Amino acid sequence: MTDVHVLRVFTDADGRFGNPLGVLLGAADWAADERQELAARLGYSETVFVDDASTGRLQIFTPACELAFAGHPLVGVGALLARTTGRPPRELRPVRLAEPVPARTDHDGTVWVRGAVADAPPWEHERLAGPAEVEGLVPPPLGRSPSAGEDKRWRRTQTWAWQDEAAGEVRARVFAADYGVVEDEACGSASLLLSAYLSRELTIRHGRGSVVRARPLGTDHAEIGGRVVHDGVRQVARMPRP
């Protein structure tokens, strides 16, 4: 059996909500096909395989594919490595990126990671009239592809509206059928892109009630931060290899 740490990333101040994440530590002997199979079996929007906790070397998989960069997995791993090693990491090293991802932890426990706009997945953004319209969206079941002329927001789009524009408060939801999930409860990379595009520091109420903080850094980088709750360890079977 294999231990999978289960986290909720981008919780609210009371530790509620948050996007579930699976993390395997000491995963260096897991082959790429094993990683993809387990990510699909777990069904979280992402699962992280940490090859080396001392350097932060890792890979990120959705149920459908590998990602070079993703926000909620990196924020979650930053919190988990701080918990397991006793010191917050200063950088993380996704293997598909040429440069490490800077990380930091605030005194209140908020974990931040910095990312390049060019490294984020190619999310679309759709602004709606208000929070009620965002909340009223009903995505189709996974596996049903939009036909010609149908709304394609369900594939990989962050829908959003201002909740309080003056305060930089946003209401958002992400739909991600291209990555093997109907809806991503709290998407860090899409929020990073939104902050960069708007050139605004944002507090984003995401999904059912998760909270993502984002701020632009120059024209081509931004950072995202949030709180993380550890929900324990789940044991899963490792599939036998042929």
Tell me what the CATH architecture of the largest domain is.
Roll
N- to C-terminal distance: 18 Å
Q: Strand order within the widest sheet?
A: 1-2-3-4-6-7-8-15
Shape: globular
Helix-strand makeup class: alpha+beta
CATH superfamily of the largest domain: Diaminopimelate Epimerase, Chain A, domain 1
Outline the biggest β-sheet: 8 strands, mixed, barrel
Q: Got a strand count?
A: 15
Strand content: 35-45%
What order do the helices and strands follow?
Answer: EEHEEEHEEEEHEEEHEEE
Question: How many domains comprise the coordinates?
Answer: 2
Helix content: 10-25%
Q: At the third CATH level, what is the topology name of the largest domain?
A: Diaminopimelate Epimerase, Chain A, domain 1
Describe the 3D structure.
It contains four helices and 15 strands. Strands 1-2-3-4-6-7-8-15 form an eight-stranded mixed beta barrel. The model has no long low-confidence stretch (mean pLDDT 95). The chain has helices spanning 32-42, 71-85, 131-135, 188-198; strands at 2-11, 19-24, 47-52, 57-61, 66-67, 91-94, 101-105, 111-116, 124-127, 157-164, 169-176, 181-184, 202-206, 210-217, 221-236. The protein folds into two domains: 2-105 and 227-236, Diaminopimelate Epimerase, Chain A, domain 1 (Roll); 124-226, Diaminopimelate Epimerase, Chain A, domain 1 (Roll). α2 (71-85) packs across α4. It has 242 residues and is of the alpha+beta class. A hairpin with a 3-residue loop joins β14 and β15 (221-236).
